[in-house]
Amino acid sequence: MNDENGSLGEESGHATGASKTAPAGSQALMRALDIIDAASGDPVDLQRLAGAVGLTRSTTHRLASTLVARDYLRFTPGEGYTLGPKLLELGHRAGAQRPLTRIARPHLDRLANETGDTVHLGVLEGDWALYLDKIPGKRRFEISSRVGERHPVWSTGLGKALILGCEERLWDHFFAIGTARGPYRAGDKQAWLARMRDYAHRGYAFDLEENEPQVRCVAAPIRSASGETVAAISVSSAAHYMDDARMEALTRVVSATADAISSDLGWRSRA
After folding, report:
1. Do residues 138 and 160 make contact, with C-beta atoms less than 8 angstroms apart?
2. Could you tell me if 127 and 179 are in contact, meaning their C-beta atoms sit under 8 angstroms apart?
3. Which residues is 98 bridged to in the sheet?
4. Environment class of 165 (CB within 10 Å of its CB; exposed 0-12, middle 13-18, buried 19+)
5. Dihedrals φ, ψ of 206, to 5°?
6. Smallest Cα–Cα separation from 65: which of 89, 23, 22, 57?
7. What are 28-37's pLDDT values in tens digits?
8. Distance between CA atoms of 65 and 69, rounded to whole angstroms?
9. Which CATH code of 1.20.1290.10, 3.30.450.40, 3.50.50.60, 1.20.1050.10 fits the domain covering 98-264?
10. What's the CA gap between 130 and 151, in Å, rounded?
11. What is the pLDDT of residues 46-83, one digit of tens each?
C-alpha cells in the first residue's frame, strides 16, 4: 500500500470528537488513538480507516504505519489493519494490575447503598458459583453466605446469571450436579429450564427461594472485553422485602451495575 503526499497536520475537514477536544499539542496522539479505536473491530483498509477517523489517506497511513512499527496495529495485505500484539500484552498487564474484585468494589458499594440489600460478586469455578465479595445489607436480616463459599449454580441467582450464555446441555449438567446434593427445593427440571430460557432472553436471573428458604435475589452477568461472561453480581434479601414487583424493578439497577463493571473491563455494548 503506497503512501500519499501530505503533512501530519492535514485533515479532511471533519475531525473526530476526540481530536476536536484534544489538549493543545496532543492532536497527533489523539489521532493515533482514534485509529486504534477504528481498527478494533473487523480488519479495515486504509480508505475506510481514513474515513472513520476523519483524516486524509496520507496522514492516516503515516500514523497507522508508525503504530504497526510499534506493534500497536498489524497490517495484512488484502485485508487491512487490526489490533497488534502490543495491545494484547498491555491488556494482560492491565488485568493483572486491576483484579476483578478491585474494579467491581466501587460499583458494589453504590448498589448496596442504593438498595439496602446484600450484594454479592461471584465467578464460575468448576461446577460451582464461587463468591468473591459480599457487602452485607442494612436490613434486619442476614444472608448466611460468606466470601470464599461455593454454592450450587442451578439454585442461586448469581449462579444462573453466570451460565445464561451456555448451551442447554450445560444447564442440564449444572441442574444435575446441584440437585444431586439435596438442595432445599429442586422442583421440576423442565420448569427450571423454561425459566432459564426466559432469563437468558431477558439478560438477568432470579433466585425464587430455590437456594435458601425465605431468600430471594436478582442477578446479572458481567462481561469481559470479548463479550464472554466472566462473573456475576446479585442483590439478595428476605422474601418479604423482595416481592415480584420489587424484583422486577431491581432488574434495571442490577443490570446497569453489571454493565458498568463490564465497561470497566473493556466490554462495549453493541445495542
Report:
1. no
2. no
3. none
4. middle
5. -115, 155
6. 57
7. 889 999 999 8
8. 6
9. 3.30.450.40
10. 7
11. 999 999 999 999 999 999 999 999 999 999 998 999 99
